[in-house]
Write a structure and sequence with these properties.
Layout (H helix, E strand, L loop, with lengths): L3 H11 L3 H13 L7 E5 L5 H9 L4 E6 L2 H12 L6 E5 L12 E7 L8 H11 E12 L5 H13 L4 H10 L6 H10 L2 E7 L6 E8 L1
Parallel strand pairs: 1-2, 1-4, 2-3, 4-5
Antiparallel strand pairs: 5-7, 6-7
Helix pairs in contact: 2-3, 6-7
Length: 213
């Protein structure tokens, strides 16, 4: 579990990489064609992605779900300072999403999978809350990433002043990460059709875009 101090330091560090969130928000926009969409940021953390999504969709409602109160507090602060609107912060876990059936147009999730205790149940929940033909934009850490290359990431993060706690938080997530093949199976078993895949077997992350059947 991430403590409040690490959550704050993580937010400060990740604000250095706004381009990552902008790129992902543009992908969400590409795959969300309905007007006034309801978009779920599952595992929203400090809301940095939600901010960029709302910049792309001024008429959207973004619902940010996270199990940590501190992360949701930071998310609301980041929303308030970014002059965007229609953000709802919800304290919940992925295995039990407190939203109505078929109420969401698009779900986006970035790197939160390692912390889902029952992944298959979480994927079933995503299917439940999505509207027919709703999309999931899913970015995940890759368990097949070579362990020795994590040392390079660790050195890089420390050199960019991530701090020991944030660096450990990121590196430890790989121990709980899944392979792309496993995630594809989660999607298929939950009733999704995979539309696109991006990422090589030994890269540090991969992307899957899926549609509710």
């Amino acid at each position: 579990m991430v403590d409040d101090k690490t959550a704050t330091e993580f937010t400060v560090y990740m604000k250095k990489f706004t381009d990552l969130y902008i790129a992902l928000s543009k992908l969400v926009k590409k795959h969300t064609l309905t007007p006034h969409p309801n978009i779920l940021d599952l595992g929203c953390g400090p809301g940095l992605l939600s901010v960029e999504i709302l910049k792309q969709f001024p008429d959207a409602t973004v619902i940010g779900i996270d199990p940590l109160i501190k992360m949701l507090t930071l998310a609301k602060e980041n929303i308030d300072t970014s002059s965007v609107q229609e953000f709802e912060a919800v304290l919940a876990i992925s295995e039990k999403i407190p939203l109505k059936d078929k109420s969401i147009d698009t779900i986006v999730s970035r790197f939160s999978l390692p912390y889902w205790k029952q992944p298959q149940q979480s994927f079933l929940e995503m299917n439940r809350v999505l509207k027919p033909k709703g999309k999931v934009i899913f970015e995940a850490l890759n368990r097949n990433f070579p362990r020795w290359r994590l040392f390079g990431i660790k050195i890089g993060m420390l050199s960019k002043l991530a701090g020991r706690d944030v660096t450990k938080y990121h590196i430890d997530a790989y121990a709980l990460a899944h392979t792309q093949e496993e995630v594809e199976m989660f999607f298929k078993n939950a009733g999704f059709t995979i539309l696109e895949k991006e990422g090589k077997k030994n890269e540090w992350k991969f992307m899957i875009i899926a549609e509710k059947q």
